[in-house]
């Protein structure tokens, strides 16, 4: 029997900022996809910045394992010999194509795609136009294919010459951001960009369905990491690492659409897709095949997710464990509470938030996510919670040792110091 096609659409910097995740944002096309999909309510990036997060998505491995611990344009790359989803699918007879954005390698040829269409800009409209054309060209292929569509959106900036902002008075300001005119204008531009990217997503899904491929294609919609606002992107707070993730399956799988509550991680995408198409998961893949969980054979596939950050614009080594109730964060270097990347440092929200985030960061953080979902109260020094802190600390150190994290041996050097 012919294996199913795979269509993956991925955005930049979205987090969960869609109507499908409870945000009052104009996003009807992603909402329509969500209504037909498994929607993961607790899907987490491994890291809160672009290249390493994407590296985990496509290798099923953690940044400290695959080598991609910082941004590719700052000298970071996969370790030699790292294999991606495209490589694994190629071994299984798939034709694979990348349209638009990738941010995992300076040489896209090493990513394993059969075909690259990356010459044109990766704006959402350009990507959608090419994807619609490609789907039409390959609708009748005998061999299965994977099409990956990478959009620049919704990364900053959001110029009004490209995206019409929504009315700032209509936006809902998250509790972890200051509610003022500057933040509202920033969010209004962000949501205007989301609206345009959402329309482009709708065009791609419509082309697939109109070609009669809905029942022979697995559809994935995902983003790299959290939303591009202070206390989001580039932090290990949930708004920095929790992401949208939707999986639409052909009816033949017998798995009904719905919400998926248990924890899941970017590293789980590769093994889950391989599991769904009946391909053995390589031993080097560190994620979990969620297929048994999705079929109802097990209640949950994992008890925790592992989070990390090493380099963004600057060296900022952090490691963390997150369970359904707790998050323990280990900061390896003294840094300010928030180390803002350049795009956030120049944002409207930054202009209106003051300088409290420049206060020194504690070396350990512990949050009770049930009682304190916004991660405001650090319990790491509370004697009442010492047992929880120490247990999670041990689990985290054991995981880092088992997976060979070099950070345990000392600071990790920048591969391109001149770019820092």
UniProtKB/TrEMBL annotation:
Q: Specify the protein name.
A: Sulfatase
Out of the domains of life, which is the source? Answer: Bacteria
Q: Which organism is it from?
A: Candidatus Avipropionibacterium avicola
GO MF terms held by the record: arylsulfatase activity; metal ion binding
Q: Which residues form the Sulfatase N-terminal domain?
A: 4-279
Family to which the UniProt record says this protein belongs: Belongs to the sulfatase family.
UniProt KW keywords: Calcium, Hydrolase, Metal-binding
Entry's transmembrane regions? none
């Amino acid at each position: 029997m012919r294996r199913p096609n795979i269509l993956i659409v991925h955005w930049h910097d979205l987090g969960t900022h869609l109507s499908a995740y409870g945000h009052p944002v104009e996003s009807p096309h992603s909402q329509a996809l969500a209504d037909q999909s498994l929607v993961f309510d607790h899907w987490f990036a491994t890291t809160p910045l672009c290249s390493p997060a994407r590296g985990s998505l496509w290798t099923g491995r953690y940044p400290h394992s695959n080598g991609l611990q910082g941004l590719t344009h700052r000298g970071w790359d996969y370790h030699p010999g790292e294999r991606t989803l495209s490589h694994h699918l190629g071994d299984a007879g798939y034709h694979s194509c990348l349209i638009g954005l990738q941010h995992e390698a300076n040489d896209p040829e090493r990513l394993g795609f059969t075909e690259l269409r990356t010459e044109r800009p990766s704006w959402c409209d350009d990507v959608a136009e090419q994807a619609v054309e490609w789907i039409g060209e390959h609708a009748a292929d005998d061999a299965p294919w994977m099409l990956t569509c990478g959009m620049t959106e919704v990364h900053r900036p959001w110029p009004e010459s490209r995206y019409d902002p929504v009315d700032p008075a209509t936006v809902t300001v998250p509790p972890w951001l200051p509610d003022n005119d500057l933040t509202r204008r920033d969010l209004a531009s962000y949501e205007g960009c989301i609206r345009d990217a959402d329309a482009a997503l709708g065009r791609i899904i419509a082309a697939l369905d109109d070609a009669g491929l809905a029942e022979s294609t697995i559809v994935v919609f995902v983003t790299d990491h959290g939303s591009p606002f202070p206390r989001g992107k580039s932090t290990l707070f949930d708004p920095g690492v929790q992401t949208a993730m939707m999986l639409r399956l052909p009816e033949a799988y017998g798995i009904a659409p719905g919400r998926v509550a248990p924890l899941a991680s970017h590293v789980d995408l590769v093994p889950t897709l391989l599991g769904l198409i009946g391909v053995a998961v390589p031993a080097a893949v560190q994620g979990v095949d969620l297929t048994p969980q999705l079929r109802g054979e097990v209640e949950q596939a994992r008890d925790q997710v592992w989070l990390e950050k090493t380099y963004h614009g600057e060296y900022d080594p952090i490691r963390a464990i997150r369970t359904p109730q707790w998050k323990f964060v280990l900061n390896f270097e003294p840094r300010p509470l928030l180390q803002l990347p350049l795009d956030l440092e120049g944002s409207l929200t930054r202009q209106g938030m003051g300088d409290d985030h420049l206060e020194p960061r504690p070396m350990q953080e512990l949050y009770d996510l049930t009682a304190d979902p916004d991660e405001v109260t650090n319990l790491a020094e509370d004697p009442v919670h010492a047992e929880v802190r120490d247990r999670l600390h041990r689990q985290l150190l054991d995981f880092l040792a088992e997976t060979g994290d070099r950070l345990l041996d000392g600071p990790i050097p920048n591969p391109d110091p001149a770019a820092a």
